[in-house]
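for the recovery benchmark. tokens below, seq after
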């Protein structure tokens, strides 16, 4: 077994635990770990260390680390930052596998703290560190609580299949207590916090192999190692273990000052969206989703379509659920004839409404035998892929019977079954959840859960393609912002097709170029100082040899008046018509390098119909996108129907577009850190077989 994996296993399942700085007062933070280990049934050896105490309760207390009778698997260090470093060095020298450092005062405090954190890592040597500034971890599967969180004051917790990794200690306690109150069973909870050593990806990788964990929930502040995170999440996906992430920081100013449209549209949060999409991570949009979605995924049920049956005894709540489902793209069709007949056969009387959806069984639906019959009928129906059961106020008198009736039907089908609790009745929701029926207090939670199940069912972990491509010989490249002609020349060297054009400096040269290019042309200023040319009157379309010269003179004056710069060079470019305008760009931040594709032209930032893919890293080199990646990007766009022949219009040359995307990504991969920004806007996609043309370009090099 790999030593690092073995250390994480020992951290989560230690045979012995030393508590460095333990207090005899369970009311103090330093007294909690011993008290909680005993309270929650830890079966291993507990070794408190405190020079001021001989015993803590029934346990002998040791004066220092050197006095310990054995080398502990794990140590919880409750000392301040300065003393913690000394303890870590001593523990490492004794061969301790891992230490949990609760102290604050590290990178979160600035430069001095960052130095202390580096010293802590050096003191650890081969020993693994969780933290610092962590609240610890909780292994509910094996009754091992290595934490000081006050949430452990609760007497017992449901044990289940959801593992949690949080970069916030306080959030770990919040999720632990919230899950317990809702009857949601968890397996392991780990607070990584400052991540001086062990980080988010280490525990995703470990939980992907943990038999007790079927779903992994993440509370993310930042991903420090994108390549490691990607590998761990793909491993989880291939092992059939969905990953759900709540990422804070969505309001950060991602649209920073940039010379390109891409820079304005591809903020940090969009980069996380792209990363999550590529590795199959389900993004929780609200904090509540971070429990709602995993509890639904943890049932292991499969959603194969978007047709949902809503079974209710209260019409208003049923409509609320079906309406929210409809907004999210789910269907709530009426029962087919055979299903409706089977439902009607379950009862006599005319009070029920069984020929439409929501299926309203009124108060008669409170009879357990009728409820069982209706559930079994709907789960067997070919018209539905999932079932949402509305629990109304009238159900509160007999929640155990209702929960039992629903539970009895679960083995009949692997379709998702969930409940919406219409009145405020958290105890009923917890009862249902413990019985294997995820129960939610909001209609939106049902939708979020089903949406996540659909995404998980449709995600296929990518197969790494072997893409053999030769580097382009570039020679000496300029630095800074290139002008449009230079940018397109570089694009063309990577085989991105560009519109035909000529560089001119006078009206006469412009007229000659227009004739050579076949008549109708576009005139643009050529300047590395002005990127958004149309904003300053630097673009004119539909010109002819007879009009281009005069327009060049007036354009020079207009641009000088608006931008304070008098252009002395211009581009005369063939006028590309009849194509679909897209934008193709590149963006880089701490998370990596991404390619962006979207609706292009001057309205690119207005409509923001875009999608992104991050380039992967292999042996320190970026890898370009595959053709499959490029095609999936095109299909992501709302604009895709236009490319695919919307309402009888000719299909666009998607193959040529895919070639251009791949070529552009090869440029981004080869140039690496030298490439600051790159964009083609617009790239015209013509009719099938007619190719694509880059009509404008931005490129900034270091």
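predicted aa per position
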């Amino acid at each position: 077994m790999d030593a690092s994996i073995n250390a994480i296993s020992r951290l989560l399942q230690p045979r012995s635990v030393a508590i460095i700085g333990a207090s005899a007062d369970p009311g103090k933070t330093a007294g909690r770990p011993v008290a909680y280990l005993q309270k929650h049934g830890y079966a291993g050896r507990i070794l408190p260390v405190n020079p001021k105490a001989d015993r803590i309760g029934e346990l002998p207390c040791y004066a220092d680390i050197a006095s310990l009778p054995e080398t502990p698997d794990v140590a919880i260090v409750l000392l301040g930052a300065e003393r913690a470093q000394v303890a870590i060095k001593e523990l490492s020298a004794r061969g301790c596998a891992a230490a949990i450092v609760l102290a604050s005062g590290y990178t979160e405090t600035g430069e001095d703290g960052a130095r202390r954190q580096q010293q802590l890592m050096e003191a650890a040597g081969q020993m693994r560190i969780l933290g610092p500034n962590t609240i610890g971890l909780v292994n509910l599967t094996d009754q091992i609580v290595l934490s000081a969180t006050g949430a452990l004051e609760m007497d017992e917790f449901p044990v289940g299949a959801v593992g949690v990794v949080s970069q916030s200690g306080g959030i770990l306690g919040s999720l632990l207590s919230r899950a317990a109150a809702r009857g949601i069973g968890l397996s392991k909870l780990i607070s990584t916090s400052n991540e001086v050593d062990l980080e988010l990806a280490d525990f995703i990788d470990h939980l992907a192999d943990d038999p007790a964990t079927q779903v992994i929930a993440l509370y993310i502040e930042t991903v420090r190692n994108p390549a490691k995170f990607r590998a761990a999440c793909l491993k989880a996906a291939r092992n059939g273990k969905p990953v759900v992430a709540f990422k804070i920081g969505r309001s950060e100013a991602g649209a920073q000052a940039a010379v390109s449209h891409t820079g304005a549209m591809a903020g940090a949060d969009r980069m996380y969206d792209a990363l999550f999409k590529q590795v199959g991570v389900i993004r929780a949009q609200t904090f509540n989703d971070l429990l709602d979605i995993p509890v639904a995924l943890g049932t292991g049920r499969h959603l194969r379509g978007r047709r949902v049956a809503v079974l209710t005894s209260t019409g208003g709540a049923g409509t609320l659920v079906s309406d929210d489902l409809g907004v999210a793209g789910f269907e709530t069709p009426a029962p087919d004839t055979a299903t409706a007949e089977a439902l009607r056969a379950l009862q006599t009387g005319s009070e029920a409404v069984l020929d439409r959806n929501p299926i309203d069984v009124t108060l008669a639906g409170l009879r357990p035998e009728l409820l069982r019959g209706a559930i079994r009928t709907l789960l067997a129906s070919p018209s539905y892929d999932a079932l949402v059961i509305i629990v109304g106020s009238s159900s509160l008198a007999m929640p155990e019977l209702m929960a039992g009736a629903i539970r009895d039907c679960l083995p009949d089908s692997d379709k998702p079954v969930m409940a919406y609790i219409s009145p405020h009745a958290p105890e009923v929701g917890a009862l249902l959840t413990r019985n294997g029926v995820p129960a939610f207090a909001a209609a939106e939670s049902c939708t979020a859960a089903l949406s996540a199940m659909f995404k998980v069912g449709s995600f296929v972990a990518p197969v790494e393609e072997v893409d053999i491509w030769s580097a382009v010989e570039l020679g000496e490249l300029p630095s800074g912002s290139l002008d449009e002609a230079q940018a397109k020349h570089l694009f063309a060297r990577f085989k991105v097709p560009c519109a035909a054009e000529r560089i001119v400096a006078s009206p006469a040269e412009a007229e000659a170029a227009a004739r050579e290019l076949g008549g109708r042309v576009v005139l643009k200023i050529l300047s590395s100082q002005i990127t958004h040319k149309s904003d300053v009157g630097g673009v004119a379309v539909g010109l002819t040899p007879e009009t281009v010269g005069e327009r060049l003179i007036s354009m020079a004056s207009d641009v000088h008046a608006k931008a304070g710069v008098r252009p002395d060079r211009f581009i005369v470019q063939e006028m590309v018509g009849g194509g679909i305008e897209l934008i193709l760009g590149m963006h880089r931040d701490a998370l990596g390098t991404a390619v962006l594709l979207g609706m292009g032209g001057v309205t690119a930032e207005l409509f923001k119909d875009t999608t992104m893919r991050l380039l992967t890293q292999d042996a320190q080199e970026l890898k370009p996108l595959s053709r499959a990646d490029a095609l999936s990007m095109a299909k992501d766009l709302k604009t895709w129907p236009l490319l695919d022949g919307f309402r009888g219009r000719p299909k666009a040359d998607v193959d040529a577009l895919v070639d251009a995307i791949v070529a552009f990504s090869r440029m981004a991969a080869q140039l690496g850190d030298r490439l600051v920004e790159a964009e083609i806007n617009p790239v015209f996609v013509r009719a099938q077989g007619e190719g694509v043309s880059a009509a404008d370009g931005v490129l900034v090099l270091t």
